[in-house]
Specification:
Blueprint: H1 3-18, E1 23-27, E2 30-34, E3 43-49, E4 54-58, E5 79-83, H2 88-91, H3 94-100
Antiparallel strand pairs: 1-2, 2-3, 3-4, 4-5
């Protein structure tokens, strides 16, 4: 298993552990987390592996508190964290973002 695959698995497990109120399913080439499985408006975040990094994409990320400007993206709603190595999971306050993320219905 390469490091990006380890990062992806660790992020999925972290999200499952911290957000037992959400269900997850394979979608868009990654793992989506939703309050109600299959209901678009309840999507909260997703984990996606790319060639050189893994992203944790927040559906309503623009509303997240980000005092250290760790979130990437400048659109109306979505923001993401990029992980290039395993240590990025702890260095980017990932747990705090996952705990405070709200579904797309919140905007």
């Amino acid at each position: 298993m390469d490091e990006l695959e380890e990062v992806e698995r660790a992020l999925i497990n972290l999200c499952r552990d911290l957000r037992k109120d959400l269900s997850d399913r394979q979608m868009y080439g990654g793992t989506m987390f939703e309050a109600i499985s299959g209901v678009h408006s309840t999507r909260t975040f997703g984990v996606f592996r790319h060639k050189d990094h893994v992203t944790l994409e927040f559906s309503n990320g623009a509303s997240l508190a980000d005092p250290d400007t760790q979130l990437d993206g400048g659109g109306k709603y979505r923001r993401n964290l990029k992980f290039r190595q395993f240590s990025d999971i702890t260095s980017q306050n990932t747990e705090d973002f996952v705990r405070s993320a709200e579904s797309a219905t919140s905007h």
